[in-house]
From TrEMBL:
Protein name: Uncharacterized glycosyltransferase YkcC
Gene3D superfamilies documented for this protein: Spore Coat Polysaccharide Biosynthesis Protein SpsA, Chain A
UniProt-annotated location(s): Cell membrane
GO MF assignments: glycosyltransferase activity
GO cellular component: plasma membrane
UniProt keyword Transferase, yes or no: yes
Keywords, ordered alphabetically: Cell membrane, Glycosyltransferase, Membrane, Transferase, Transmembrane, Transmembrane helix
Membrane topology type: Multi-pass membrane protein
EC number(s) on file: 2.4.-.-
Provenance organism: Mesorhizobium prunaredense
UniProt record similarity statement: Belongs to the glycosyltransferase 2 family. GtrB subfamily.
Top EC class of this enzyme: transferase
Pfam families in UniProt: Glycos_transf_2
Region listing for Disordered, in residue ranges: 320-343
Amino acid sequence: MNVSPPRYSLVLPIYNEEQVLPRLIERISSLIGRLDGETEAIFVDDGSLDGSVEYLRNVVAVEPRFRLIELSRNFGHQVAITAGMDAAAGDAVIVMDADLQDPPEVVLDLVAKWKEGFEIVYARRVKREGESWFKRITASLFYRLLEKMTSVDIPRDVGDFRLVGRKALETFKQMPEHDRFVRGMFAWMGFKQTAVPFERPARNLGQTKYPFWKMMHLAVHGIVSFSEKPLRVALWGGLAISALAVVFGTYAIFAWIFETGVIAGWTSIVVIVSLLCGINLFMTGVVGLYVGGIHAEVKRRPLYVIDRVAGFDKAMRAASDSRRPFRKPRNGASADGRTLRQL
Ligand code: UDP
Ligand code: MG
């Protein structure tokens, strides 16, 4: 094992977090002071529209342990995390939300578990404060549904607050999928995994960036990218309905032959046709989700585009990592839109 002290990377996705940033920087700095190894904090600006970037640029300019990746636009939480992890140089990488709902102090517990030999350590929410009952119920339903539908054991009540070791990180980097459901991807890869419980406080500043439709989107993609069950539902559902249709059809024919004067029921036709149309459309939609996923993959676009980076020339390079894309930006100029995945 390492004799030299471990190196840590913190990855923080930032999307319009202007209000939280001063407190966040404070808390992160004090966390860095308490960690037992060299630590870098990588802020990934996910196309913020407020003053977040300017604030971070100023902080990164004076604080040698902070680094900044500015994505060229909003790519979404899951991709922002990926960009940060791709650039991380530490032996252990910790991903956490920037809104202080993932308390920085919990990182110490994650690190302790990592030192016991766990490659992936999740922070499990045992209590969610300040979240509406609606969010709590939908989240809980989602985790249970996910558990039922997927073949991979995706841990319940676990978000993206986690620590991963180098081996898991390198594995993650080899997973190019566009449809990213990061927590599922880590569950999939195996290794020794464990969870550390924590109480999730309310977001006290700023707004949640996950409105209902975004949550739905994440939920649907979580299921579609980790389960073929919806496709099978289409198959069996279609078969069952066809069987019913045969039975009913037979009855209708006999009725037509033996019951004189019966005019075929208009109502039943309308009911059946509309029912079948509905199911058909639904199932086409299910198939479409998967086809859409394939479409996104075959385009082979890079996952994200980096506008500019700052702070990476300061120290701490990953000795083992050949994919590190960052060169010292020329005169602080933008890193010409190169993307990590192209390199
Ligand atoms: N975030 C991001 N890009 C987005 C949406 C969110 O980088 O498109 C970041 C956000 O700044 C925060 C984290 O992802 O650090 C989690 O977002 P949020 O707190 O809004 O989610 P919630 O805790 O409500 O699920
Ligand atoms: Mg939050």
